[in-house]
Amino acid sequence: MKIPFHIISGFLGSGKTTFLKRIIDSYSEKYKLGIIQNEFVPSNIDGVELKNSGKDFHLLEINKGSVFCVCLLGDFIRSLEKFIDEHRPDVLIIEASGLSDTTSVAEVVSSGSLSEKIYLASNWCIVDALNFKKAGLMRQRIEHQIRMADKVLVNKTDLVESVDKLQSEIRKMNPFAEINATTFCNAGFLPGDAAVSKFYPDSGNPLSRPEVNSMVIKSGKKISKEALVQFLNEWASKAYRIKGYANMKDGKTLAVQCVFDKMELISVDNNFHPTELVALSDQFTLKQWNKSFKEYVQK
């Protein structure tokens, strides 16, 4: 049975560790939690804080740069496989570095033998309502994290007068994310089997977790809108969900979301984002899907 893999991203000081502590407090007695903390610096103060909580969980610390960086991706995948084999967690949660570019996250869950052990259950991004505009040159990183998220928490709302404009800005970056305003990251989290419900709305609680595959297409190639629609029509009915961004030959970028036969395409601003499509399915493989995409790009 595959293990649900949850990502928590967000810029420095946004509240990621606070959110993770809430999850550990709520679920460490019900689930065998595997926690991955990723920081750029050798000293992991947040890891010490979690260990001092007295809660029962297993911790994997990686403190030499972003695990989503190409230069570390291979090492991270091997470390994660070893961690899974050693501890056999029910749920995996990674607190990504505040400087992480999580656009490579799907490459983790779809890579080699790891794809047989985990699936991407949710991708959270914590946004600091007070300091969002102060990110400066790191703004690009934040926008990447937001664009890859299923759920966005606008945190520290008690420190600002209004978050309406910020939420509108986030909505332009990611038209399909669930956006919630919070204080101290007080938000609901669904671990384990429950996290799959958003992809399997008709599956009742007694059913076991489906053996779903997470897979990603990442490409610098541009595609026509007509070819993209044809491609999605061919595969959407075979997938529980397809989401991501596609760069068009006419220079536009479309946010893509398909849930079974329902397809949504929304034009978004694009400055630096490659085409990236993520699918959850048990009816086709990454090799088949990627081959088909390359064929449609040529049309």
Automatic annotation (TrEMBL):
UniProt cross-references to SUPFAM superfamilies, sorted A to Z: P-loop containing nucleoside triphosphate hydrolases
Pfam families, per the entry: cobW, CobW_C
Domain CobW/HypB/UreG nucleotide-binding: start-end pairs: 5-179
Q: Gene3D superfamilies of this UniProt entry?
A: P-loop containing nucleotide triphosphate hydrolases (3.40.50.300)
Which GO cellular component term is one of those annotated?
cytoplasm
Q: Which residues form the CobW C-terminal domain?
A: 212-279
User: Where exactly are the transmembrane stretches of this chain?
Assistant: none
Give the function comment from the record.
Zinc chaperone that directly transfers zinc cofactor to target proteins, thereby activating them. Zinc is transferred from the CXCC motif in the GTPase domain to the zinc binding site in target proteins in a process requiring GTP hydrolysis.
What is the name attached to this protein's record? GTPase, G3E family
Instruction: Record the organism.
Output: Mariniphaga anaerophila
